């Protein structure tokens, strides 16, 4: 039987999961209906693409609407997972969700590049900002998935997605196709973060960061990243989106990695 939350207890505060409590209540009401999580995923994909199209238009009024749509995309992204935990988990849904996130992020940064003028340097800057955003999100997800497994929480996501197998009710061919696409888009990020963690902490380091560090790492999650993007749009600063992830967010990520290294060394010495 699936658990209604990703973690069985509130071990740390997840800043990237704002609104998730409300989405869990909505999911409980939707669980007996014929609505399925994949329907919600399609909805948030269309929501995010519409937001990107509005950003491309470059008008203050449409920017504010795009900001609201990005927040809505985040809430719908939480709703599909919450509904799956009330109905039944799905590997196909898990991969489709992450691929849809990737598509929306690419569309958003492509729109910003065109908004800045569409020159080669604008596209390169947006591509670099997108890459930074993806890697920062993967850094948080790397530790979050391990928390979920260690504490017997929701396990639709695996530390190594190459080991995943479709559930009996998943269409096997389509699920494996989406799994291969997921690994193409995200697998290298997961392996890079795993190697970085070993390099920072050593092979004998504790596998899990402290709850305090997890709370800080949650600021790198996609939910808060989209909230930052929405705030920039709302205040007419859409063109600054790549610099946010290449500047303050990148510096913050480095500080968190240093925290992880110091914490792991301290715990290793105490053992």
Low-confidence sequence ranges: none
Q: Please work out how many helical segments DSSP would assign.
A: 10
- What is the strand content? under 5%
From N to C, what is the helix and strand string? HHHHHHHHHH
CATH superfamily: CDP-alcohol phosphotransferase transmembrane (TM) domain
Classification by helices and strands: mainly alpha
List keywords for this structure.
271 residues; mainly alpha; Four Helix Bundle (Hemerythrin (Met), subunit A); 10 helices; 0% strand; globular
What does this structure look like?
- It is a single chain.
- Helix 2 (37-57) runs parallel beside helix 4 (91-115).
- The longest helix is centred in the middle third of the chain and has 31 residues, at 120-150.
- This protein has a single domain, classed as Four Helix Bundle (Hemerythrin (Met), subunit A), CATH 1.20.120.1760.
- The chain is mostly helical.
- The protein is 72% helix and 0% strand.
- The chain has ten helices and no strands.
Short structural summary:
By secondary structure, the protein is mainly alpha-helical. Helices cover 72% and strands 0% of the residues.
Q: Secondary-structure blueprint of this entry?
A:
Elements lengths: L19 H11 L6 H21 L2 H27 L4 H25 L4 H31 L21 H30 L9 H7 L4 H13 L6 H6 L1 H23 L1
């Amino acid at each position: 039987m699936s658990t209604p939350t990703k973690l069985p207890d509130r071990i740390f505060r997840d800043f990237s999961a704002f609104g998730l409590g409300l989405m869990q209540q909505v999911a409980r009401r939707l669980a007996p209906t014929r609505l399925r999580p994949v329907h919600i995923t399609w909805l948030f994909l269309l929501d995010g693409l519409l937001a990107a199209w509005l950003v491309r238009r470059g008008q203050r009024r449409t920017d504010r609407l795009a900001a609201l749509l990005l927040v809505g995309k985040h809430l719908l992204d939480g709703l599909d997972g919450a509904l799956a935990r009330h109905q039944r988990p799905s590997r196909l849904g898990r991969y489709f969700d992450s691929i849809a996130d990737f598509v929306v992020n690419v569309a958003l940064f492509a729109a910003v590049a065109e908004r800045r003028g569409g020159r080669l340097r604008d596209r390169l800057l947006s591509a670099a900002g997108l890459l930074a955003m993806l890697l920062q999100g993967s850094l948080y997800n790397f530790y979050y998935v391990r928390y979920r497994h260690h504490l017997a929480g929701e396990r639709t996501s695996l530390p190594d997605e190459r080991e995943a197998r479709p559930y009996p009710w998943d269409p096997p061919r389509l699920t494996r196709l989406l799994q291969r696409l997921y690994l193409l888009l995200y697998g290298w990020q997961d392996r890079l973060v795993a190697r970085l963690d070993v390099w920072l902490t050593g092979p004998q380091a504790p596998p899990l960061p402290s709850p305090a560090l997890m709370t800080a790492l949650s600021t790198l999650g996609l939910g808060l990243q989209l909230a930052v993007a929405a705030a920039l749009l709302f205040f007419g600063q859409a063109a600054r989106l790549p610099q946010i992830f290449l500047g303050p967010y990148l510096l913050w990520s480095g500080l968190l990695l240093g925290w992880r290294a110091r914490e792991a060394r301290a715990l290793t010495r105490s053992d």
